[in-house]
Design goal:
- The protein is mostly beta strands and 425 residues long.
- It folds into 4 domains: 2-85, Phosphatidylinositol 3-kinase Catalytic Subunit, Chain A, domain 1 (Ubiquitin-like (UB roll), Roll); 87-198, Methylamine Dehydrogenase, Chain H (7 Propeller); 239-359, 7 Propeller (Methylamine Dehydrogenase, Chain H); 363-424, no CATH class.
- It contains 4 helices and 30 strands.
- It has helices at 36-47, 71-74, 162-169, 280-284; strands spanning 2-4, 13-19, 25-31, 51-56, 80-86, 90-93, 97-101, 107-111, 129-134, 138-143, 148-152, 174-179, 183-188, 193-197, 213-218, 222-227, 232-236, 255-260, 264-269, 274-278, 297-302, 306-311, 316-320, 335-340, 345-349, 354-356, 363-372, 383-391, 400-409, 414-424.
- It has a 5-stranded mixed sheet, with helices on one face.
- A hairpin with a 5-residue loop joins strand 2 (13-19) and strand 3 (25-31).
- It is globular, with a radius of gyration of 28 Å.
């Protein structure tokens, strides 16, 4: 095989055009007995970048062509146009390990072997990888052919049996993987769903029948899937959004997207209404702003425990844990866009200014814990230990934050712990 510049091919050889989304293209020739993997190697050199594989130009988003099949087996005609799948570097992490998916489809991992830092058992399978997903303690890699390779802690889905592996690979394989803290859910190319990992009693994937799923979303312990008609089905821990029975009548159709905090979901419908469920303290209960969420909502953003919605009249509605942004300090108008961090929201206004839309008020948490202990035989005097820490944060959010921890041994030889947290805004 070789790269050509539109020159005519010799007898017995076929010419192909390999294109990128940027419009760049290369002309390569091959024998009909060559595999697509061999064709890919030539195209990589011609285009000067790593490629994962090819898809037919008329359906680049569908199932990629099998790399180990020959050109003759695929019946590819002369001057076929192939869309190249370009490899790029991506890094994912569990709690104690990293995995880097490289441009050539290989994977390198490091960190704790119990959390996915050791790929020695699956190293021979980690080739032609186009995506890697991670939960707290395990990784799952999607290969170009749609098969899945997992490694890491078994309790979090780091090991699967042959029957599950076969189920993941059939009918075109997997298109995308979504994770909770300890489980994976795979959206397959045929619209079906397979999940595995740490499963609660209610966490088994429900029977979807003929429903074709288009997208999956997750909290820390539950999944929500949206089908082609906008219907929603959930599974996982009920307190984290795995049970939507209370609002099921509003989730039968018309949902365009689902948003999530750590433990609650919010579904945006085509009519601009928002439906919430999950943890009552993490945004799953929107009763306080129910009337404001019945129409006109254009966008929803989330922190770890609160939601904020941008309405058609450029106003903002927030609900959820007030310490995570669920309470507005004052009504907001003329808002162009919203964004969020883990615990706060910010609004981009029509005049181009950015404004934090929630603030904490001054509060203190004071607690004392007494723990009786046996009198030590070698200790005959009171012991006092005090630790304090002060932190200054961005003045636009807090004037000061202080934390104090005191630990001492009383004359009666009981252990006393005092904790104080104070925040000024």
């Amino acid at each position: 095989m070789e790269q050509l510049d539109e020159a005519p091919c010799e007898a017995g050889r076929l010419r192909f055009w390999v294109t990128l989304l940027s419009g760049e293209k290369a002309c390569v020739v091959a024998q009909s007995s060559d595999t697509l993997r061999q064709l890919r190697d030539v195209a990589q050199r011609a285009l000067g970048r790593p490629l994962l594989g090819f898809a037919p130009s008329d359906s680049p988003g569908e199932v990629p062509l099998p790399l180990d099949a020959t050109i003759a087996e695929l019946n590819l005609p002369q001057d076929s146009v192939l869309s190249a799948l370009v490899g790029r570097l991506r890094v994912q992490s569990t709690r104690f390990a990293f995995a880097a998916c490289q441009g050539d489809g290989s994977v390198v991992s490091w960190g704790s072997p119990f959390a996915g830092g050791d790929t020695s058992e699956v190293e021979h399978e980690l080739m032609d990888v186009q995506e890697v997903a991670a939960n707290l303690m395990a990784f799952a890699a999607i290969r170009v052919d749609g098969s899945v390779v997992v490694w890491g802690h078994q309790s979090c889905g780091g090991q699967i049996d042959e029957s599950l592996q076969a189920k993941l690979s059939e009918n075109g394989g997997v298109r995308r993987i979504v994770t909770t803290d300890r489980a994976f859910a795979a959206l397959k190319r045929d619209g079906s769903v397979v999940s595995w990992g740490c499963m609660y009693p209610s966490a088994q994937t429900p029977d979807l029948g003929t429903r074709r799923i288009s997208s999956i979303y997750a909290t820390r312990a539950a999944f929500a899937a949206v089908d082609a008609g906008g219907g929603v089905v959930t599974w996982g821990h009920a307190a984290c959004g795995g049970d939507c029975t209370a609002v099921a009548q509003h989730l039968q159709e018309g949902v365009t997207r689902v948003y999530s905090t750590d433990n609650a979901f919010a579904a945006l419908r085509r009519d601009g209404a928002v439906v919430t469920w999950g943890s009552q303290t993490a945004g799953g209960n929107s009763d306080a702003v129910h009337d404001l969420l019945q129409q006109g909502v254009q966008k929803v953003v989330a922190t770890e425990a609160a939601f904020a919605a941008l309405c058609a009249d450029r106003s903002v509605v927030a609900w959820g844990d007030h310490l995570a942004g669920g309470t507005l300090e004052a009504p907001l108008q003329d808002v162009a866009d919203l964004c969020s961090s883990r615990s706060a929201f910010a609004a981009l206004q029509m005049d181009g200014t950015v404004r934090p839309i929630t603030r904490l008020s001054r509060f203190q948490i004071v607690d004392t814990i007494d723990v009786p202990i046996e009198r030590p035989s070698l200790l005959s005097f009171p012991l006092s230990l005090s630790v304090s820490l002060s932190v200054s944060l961005c003045q636009s959010l807090f004037r000061s934050l202080s934390f104090a921890l005191s630990l001492w041994l009383t004359p009666s030889f009981s252990l006393s712990l005092s904790f104080r947290l104070s925040i000024d805004t």
